Amino acid sequence: MKIKLLTPARWSQHLFVLLTAILLFLPATSFAEPKALVMKPFKQLSQESKECAACHKEKNPSIYAQWGRSKHYGANVGCYECHQASPDDPDAIKHEGFNIAVIVSPKDCSACHSQEVAEFSASHHAKAGQILGSLDNFLAEVVEGALTFHGKSSAAVNGCWQCHGSEVKVLENGDLDPTTWPNTGIGRINPDGSVGACTACHQRHEFSMVQARRPEACGKCHLGPDHPQKEVYEESKHGINFFAHVDKMNMDSAKWVVGEDYDAAPTCATCHMSATRELPVTHDVGNRISWTLRPAISEKIDAKDKASGKETKSWQDRRTDMKNVCQSCHTKSMIDNFYQQFDSLVELYNDKFARPGKAMMEVLQKEKLLTDTEFDEEIEWTWFYLWHHEGRRARHGAAMQAPDYVQWHGMYEVAERFYIEMVPQFMEILEKAEHDGKTDSATRARAVLDEILNRPEHAWFTGNEPENVKKARKEAQDAFKDRYLNDSK
Amino acid sequence: MKIKLLTPARWSQHLFVLLTAILLFLPATSFAEPKALVMKPFKQLSQESKECAACHKEKNPSIYAQWGRSKHYGANVGCYECHQASPDDPDAIKHEGFNIAVIVSPKDCSACHSQEVAEFSASHHAKAGQILGSLDNFLAEVVEGALTFHGKSSAAVNGCWQCHGSEVKVLENGDLDPTTWPNTGIGRINPDGSVGACTACHQRHEFSMVQARRPEACGKCHLGPDHPQKEVYEESKHGINFFAHVDKMNMDSAKWVVGEDYDAAPTCATCHMSATRELPVTHDVGNRISWTLRPAISEKIDAKDKASGKETKSWQDRRTDMKNVCQSCHTKSMIDNFYQQFDSLVELYNDKFARPGKAMMEVLQKEKLLTDTEFDEEIEWTWFYLWHHEGRRARHGAAMQAPDYVQWHGMYEVAERFYIEMVPQFMEILEKAEHDGKTDSATRARAVLDEILNRPEHAWFTGNEPENVKKARKEAQDAFKDRYLNDSK
Amino acid sequence: MKIKLLTPARWSQHLFVLLTAILLFLPATSFAEPKALVMKPFKQLSQESKECAACHKEKNPSIYAQWGRSKHYGANVGCYECHQASPDDPDAIKHEGFNIAVIVSPKDCSACHSQEVAEFSASHHAKAGQILGSLDNFLAEVVEGALTFHGKSSAAVNGCWQCHGSEVKVLENGDLDPTTWPNTGIGRINPDGSVGACTACHQRHEFSMVQARRPEACGKCHLGPDHPQKEVYEESKHGINFFAHVDKMNMDSAKWVVGEDYDAAPTCATCHMSATRELPVTHDVGNRISWTLRPAISEKIDAKDKASGKETKSWQDRRTDMKNVCQSCHTKSMIDNFYQQFDSLVELYNDKFARPGKAMMEVLQKEKLLTDTEFDEEIEWTWFYLWHHEGRRARHGAAMQAPDYVQWHGMYEVAERFYIEMVPQFMEILEKAEHDGKTDSATRARAVLDEILNRPEHAWFTGNEPENVKKARKEAQDAFKDRYLNDSK
Would you say C345 and B158 are in contact if contact means Cβ atoms under 8 Å apart? Predict the structure, then answer.
């Protein structure tokens, strides 16, 4: 839908009020950080919204009540202000005499919340819908699913798209296509062409700041075996303090600056989005992130943009900003040391397992020892579990200090997946290749594996660990025991 | 135990009060929906309960305090009113001069809460104890366990029975058999012959409505790898709103009608049990459920009853009632579209994986390519994981809109289980059969698998996907990229 | 760092106040249970702490605010009182004219909290750092990791050590070694030689009792696939009541005696640490535990000490104390029966799976059918998953009444791991051994497996279940069905 501004007549009626309001608010508003446009164009709820409400408060009383608690209510922003449509909007419907759109898109919200939408639109979140043309789509459409739900796969509709966003379609009769809606995926592609769904995080119709700031909001998508950020947070000391002290955290305060308005604990929002004494709120969630922990091999978050010559905020600047958040509670030396620990885990994962795993998959593909089809061979699942599930868990655990995710949900499972599944499956493929006469291909692939397994960090597995390494380890253990365990042995 | 009513003398003393109370309450009480019998037979706590309390408030002070906060306290329902027994009750014990039963059964509760017990008794919950004579019993008694705990399996005692319910036995000395009690399984079979344990959901001794209405109450059993309803709820937008706004949800209100008394979020109880403006409270939790998501192949919830000619509420009527709950917050088009999405996921799972998997297991059994014993062969575990764990997770995720459960905990794992474990294990069995000379059996079984894998939805796996299908997919992806990704490529 | 007491001059100034305070508190303080030393040596915050605060309240405002809510603030215990150091402390740094240590160790805390530190030091928690010279170290340093982070493994640094504790090192420049700090592992080995980290549970700088008493505090480490105590608690009726009634639990009361100050639910602290009407608070968390559920084969918690002639509190006395906690809410017969159920599950796991599994691994090692290296062969992972992950889950589930952890996360997975993975892998090793000419070794190993599988509890798997056993089971099932299911069949 499109925000259709009020009729000129009604608009001029309220212009004076609006301008006065703007002028009154100016002194308190930083020019550098405009907030949602404060416009109070109505003395009272619009006649249109009153008509909507008269009926819907009977039909859907909870929506009405939620809205009644919202800031929108206080600002006389009612049903019609958000849901009005232009008759030529693709999803406009004629409803009780009004042109209405069911979907309120970021374009609509931007009428008042322009800065938030602009920030969001520049973020990685806004690209979440690109999955519709990606590998994961193959998983959901072909491997797990079938195009049996009006030409779409129900696995995508109920799964992927609910986080990533659907491409919302309007049926010929004006209804929203049930394969594409309801959908609150953060990268949703709306009928009006805009991208995103503010309601992914700001649940309608109260649009409560408490809700958006709590960790569960992000946990709508950021949880589970492949990106357990919510679980990681809950294990961390940050999460522990949150649950103990949430009542003291001023969660519903408009101004919510860490170190000023609250201090007991950070939520996801605190670190990734909310204001510090020096930093403004941002709706670009990657703004303070230095690594991307998503792909098989992690790289600094600006690497891709830099490589393609695209202007972007450097990872160093992003990290500086994140450290600014940390500093509310932690001293510099602790923060710096933490980042050394975190970086080292990402690099360990990258170097010991991710790059080798990727090289193994690449040589199999190059040597045509795998079919062209993804996920029809066991080693493809093995590798996917390693990086997409377990390797991410380890990295996320280190990023947010949840040791169980680094270890038992993470590196322990990565190691088992690599040594006990991936290497044997790789060798089995080579044996079959040799048996099938593809000796040269097998030899070249075996050379890749041999080079990997001969590295010092893998020597233990092949039984080639040098004696001096074993001895040094033994001595370190004995020395430790001598120092600390004499009385308990 | 049996509720023994008061002595005639004491009863008549209070008859006038009781009748007056009933009459006073009549205008506010709907005849169609009787609540717990409101009887205030005592001016004060009975002498018997006073004696119980005098001692137990010292010995078990927290029970006493919990009861002190309960509605029971306010209604002068004390220890003795619930725990009194007839001397010939199977579990009656003589205790400090009173006939007492430790277990308060639904039969006892029904003295006041007759409607709730009647509804419960007609529900699927009341049949939970039937597992004692089922396959899961074989798992717990034979595969996982052994009959070494006074003739019972500790795996059943500490596991299955704690949710499903034990068949409570009284030892010769009058004590409750430790293999069967403590037990609060919802389908518990009590010494008095009644079925159920109200305390499964209404934890003693406060019997707080807040506790029973919270999602954790249901999470006593409905969680974990095989039926993660609690986790699914927590991921859903319903759960997100619950945790953000529980303080505004009036959780301890006697009247708790969605859209009247609260609106921020539904809990499990809201959708499955509690009142709407049109529907009464029900203790038959299946009353608004249209699919059964429990078995290997989902069917509509009335299918079994219909097939056996049993009168039952149709799935359509149940769905209509559930939609009535949804309507408090959602409009009709959204609800209808949601149900299309949900249905389509169940059907996808059924058609692509569940029916084929079942057919594969059936032909192996029929052709005697499996032993008669369950769970002694790998493919039996594989199939069980597929439907009982992963397939349910996908279905539950779709039912309550938790995309991670549909996808990463669900269909992704279903697909891997099917293609990478079940199909190869099936083929290995056939190879062994051929090797053992059972050529005909193997041929017939192979025909079943071939027919399955030749279906369009499985053609990708065998490399037989038609070129036009691949091409159409490629074109759709390219078109998507052209529409949306030009600037980001 | 070392607590440096105040200068003699300032000390004498406050001696009178201190002595008066001590005398005043004497009547209310049990000599048998000294609490944290109540000393109020300052009329106001020390000059040193004032100087610290003047700067840090700007730099790290949240620390300042957290401390402002703490009891420390009320007792005039400021930054300097805890962070002061002697110039010769290994981790002392010169900071703005003061000798400061970043780490506040149990030794420092013991200046006021001597009893708590003494109890902690005698506990199993204090030994958590011994892992640094153990098998898990091999996992993190060699299998999962590599010594690439300044000679340490990032898997240990970010994983193991964050729960178990690092051996904190000071670099030559006086900084804390980033491989070893930040670290709040409970068995941390501090620069001053003391062991432990009070902040593992008492998060700085508020040191809130609410936080330490909540289950999330313990969930910093006690969660996940290998020791899901937090998840187990959350499923249990104890956890259900906690989340429903936490607001009534007086969580911030200094005196927090179950049955006096609260009664709605126990938290981890209630059962393992906090006071009952008869028992004092303890910081030795094993004090009321009767089984150790950690090792492959569970034994009574005093078994090792007894075997080595070490004086220790017997498991019976520990259980008696735990029962004293239970009694606040439960009657004796329920508690006793519960312990029978719990014990029987541990014994089932021990006898049916753990001892056999261990015997199988031992014979493989003895017969040199495994390499000397751990975790380079699949069966080593299989066995580790069985006891370290799944077997613990089952035992923990039984210990705290979470049936899903006993069954689906526990015994079900134990059984599958044993029959479908461990036994076949064992047999494969024997086949390979025979193929390699190690016939005698294979024969001896096979004898061990045969003996195990011929036991009655495994006979079902080999198809040797006696007919009378099958028949008895069938009859029991039929009898059950006759009793209860006639109308539903």
Answer: yes
C261 in contact with B at a CB cutoff of 8 Å?
A: no
Closest CA to B429 of B367, B343, B344: B367
Neighbours of C9 (CB within 10 A): 7
Q: Which residues is A84 bridged to in the sheet?
A: A100
Q: Which of A90, A69, A71, A67 is nearest to A80 (CA)?
A: A67
Q: How far apart are the first and last CA of chain C?
A: 74
Is the CB of residue C286 less than 8 Å from the CB of residue C315? no
Distance from CA of C288 to the nearest CA of B (A): 19
Q: Where are the domains of chain C?
A: 1-102, 119-200
CA dist C127 and B313 (Å) reads: 61
Q: 3-state SS of chain B?
A: CCCCCCCHHHHHHHHHHHHHHHHHHHHHCCCCCCCCCCCCCCCCCCHHHHHHHHHHHHHCHHHHHHHHHCHHHHCCCCHHHHHECCCCCCCEEEECCEEEECCCCHHHHCCCCHHHHHHHHCCHHHHHHHHHHCHHHHHHHHHCCCCCECCECHHHHHHHHHHHCCECCECCCCCECCCCCCCCCCCCECCCCCECCHHHCCCCCCCCHHHHHCHHHHCCCCCCCCCCHHHHHHHCHHHHHHHHHHHHCCCCCCCCCECCCECCCCCHHHHHCCCCCCCCCCCCCCCCCCEECCCCCCEECCHHHHHCCCCCCCHHHHHHHHHHHHCCCCCHHHHHHHHHHHHHHHHHHHHHHHHHHHHHHHHHHHCCCCCCCCCCCHHHHHHHHHHHHHHHHHHHHHHCCCHHHHHHHHHHHHHHHHHHHHHHHHHHHHHHHHHCCCHHHHHHHHHHHHHHHCCHHHHHHHCCCCHHHHHHHHHHHHHHHHHHCHHHC
B442 and B433 Cβ atoms separated by less than 8 Å: yes
Contact C356, C450 (CB under 8 A): no
DSSP track, A436-450 = TT-HHHHHHHHHHHH
- The alpha carbon of residue C175 is apart from the nearest alpha carbon of chain B, in Å, by 42
Q: What is the spatial distance between Cα B378 and Cα C416, in angstroms, rounded to a whole number? A: 9
C94-143 pLDDT, tens per residue? Answer: 999 999 999 999 999 999 999 999 999 999 999 999 888 876 689 999 99
Strand partners, B195: B189
Quick check: C241 contacting B, CB < 8 Å? yes
- Start-end of H helices in A75-113: 79-83, 106-109
Looking at the complex, report in whole angstroms how far the Cα of residue B429 sits from the nearest Cα belonging to chain A. Answer: 19
pLDDT along chain B (489 residues), means of 10: 48 47 44 50 82 96 96 94 95 96 97 96 95 82 96 96 96 96 97 97 97 98 97 98 98 97 98 98 97 98 96 97 98 97 98 98 98 97 98 98 98 98 98 98 98 97 93 89 67
User: Do B158 and C484 count as a contact with CB atoms less than 8 A apart?
Assistant: no
Report chain B residues whose CB lies below 8 A from the CB of C352. 145-146
Coil, strand or helix at A51: helix
Q: Does residue B259 belong to the interface with chain C, where contact is any CB pair within 8 Å?
A: no
Identify the CA nearest to C122 among candidates C196, C226, C201, C178: C196
pLDDT tens by residue, B474-483 = 898 888 888 8
- pTM of this structure: 0.93
Among candidates A365, A358, A406, A350, which has minimal Cα distance to A384? A358
Closest partner CB to B348 (pick from A61, A145, A373): A145
Place of tokens 């506990």: C123
For residue A260, which residues of chain C lie inside 8 Å, CB to CB? 61
C83 CB-near residues (< 8 Å, 6+ apart)? C1, C52, C100, C101, C102, C104
